[in-house]
Amino acid sequence: MNLVYADEHGNLFDHPDWIALGRSGDMVVELMEDELIPLPDGATLVGLPHTRPIGIHAASGEMRPLPGNYQAVGALLPQGFTRLCIPGYMKTDKEQKLPLFGYSAVVWKDGAFHVAAQQCDDPERWNPLNCDPKELTVGVERLLAKYPENRLYQHLSNCALGYECLTASNTFLQRWEGAVPVSFSCNAGCYGCISEQPDDSGFPAPQTRMNFKPTVQELVDVMMEHLNAPDSIISFGQGCEGEPSTQARIIIDAMREVRSRTSMGYININTNAGLTDHIRGIVDAGLNLMRVSTISALDDHYNTYYKPRGYTLANVEKSLRYAADKGVYTSINYLIFPGVTDREEEIEAMLGFVKRTGLKLIQMRNLNIDPESYLALIPKAQGEIYGMKQMLEIFADELPGVVIGSYTHVPPAPLNQSR
Asked: What is the CATH architecture assignment of 124-405?
């Protein structure tokens, strides 16, 4: 498996005399054959700025950086695929932080690019190649013309066309899971927030957070347009906003208005679930699906990353349990990282969390972060590190009734939508 690297102009090469390596946490590791799959459709290969690729020189057996002015290369995977290793690299400038993406190890093997990853879900719906730009532009123009005063559609048009957000694009294509952002504020200060960073963080936020409070009618317009098929999903809580439950009042009023008009489709919230009282109100208004973002079921790790304001992981667990007891199809947006999520203590804690909360689905989501910054922030490993592939096998064995996936699913059986 040949080392893949890039020159300063972004041209990609593979080196037949160098064997590719990966990283698990801060350890450089060999890549196993059973960890590699062909580069998926919709994946993107990128150079890692301010890095040098690390490999094994085949003739000498020595592990070292590739000589020359070259960058390491990583793959950005589409939804449906879980990375097993990050690329093997060293930084040439330790003060520089990598852009907020989830980099996966990539190699050249059997005449094609391969990545260290495992398919955990059907990638078809979230393949960027299935979003036709011309069709999207027509959808944006149509809904902007129909609702010229609706600021949500104006905001989402930039998300769809500017940031190429697939959930926002679905809102204009009126299919599958669509977006309805609602909050400009948050009750957490996530270290890797993709929409808002402190000026001194060193991370350039890849997108802009919404800066207005929508009205109930603006929400209702978007929801009614999207809930037009039995399997349609409209979701509060997007990457361009803060915590949606901080705007529980307008969410509840909009949900009640929409459900007075139609029982079609599913209403979902992507949330940190820390505001348990607000979550209860949203659940009671007729919520169908709830996806809770988490990085760990251990308090010290969770608190270090999320920096929760006025809530704890116990509140998150209480919210999930309440929603599950009320018939909501619950899942977690599990932010995973090789060498961390597969630690013995992390696995044990998450298994207990899943069982206590009655979760139906775990969405394995590759954490977008600068690896060195993240590893310096969180607690050190306490036990064995199993590897991501074995971790996935443990979850499948220990949680036979829980779906291991990558994105929000329509439940396998109809929900009670009259609640």
From this structure: Alpha-Beta Barrel (3.20)
